[in-house]
Amino acid sequence: MDYEIAPEELKPLLDSDSDVVLVDVREPWEWETAKIDGSRHIPMSDIPARFNQELDPDDHIVVVCHHGVRSMNVTAWLRQQGFEKVQSLRGGIDRWAREIDPTVPIY
Description:
- By secondary structure, the chain is α/β, with parallel strands linked by helices.
- It is built from 5 helices and 5 strands.
- It has a single domain, classed as Oxidized Rhodanese, domain 1 (3-Layer(aba) Sandwich).
- The protein is 40% helix and 17% strand.
């Protein structure tokens, strides 16, 4: 499985009955500003303390941040912890808002 998934690849998965888990790792103020419906908010700094309790290594997890840098770091870290089905949203929520869902605010 690739480390990244493009917004146009993620959209049909979310529209279907697939069990994709979106994990947004941005700061609380960013989460309040713009988010993808149905995503879970676990700030990047909280991932090491919370991932074992809140995430299932068998799930297909897509990590989201603003532009894709933090989500790629979290994806790589989770892969090192044995989460093999984790991907980073390429371009982050910014690209999602520009290409997929214009109702999501750009900041």
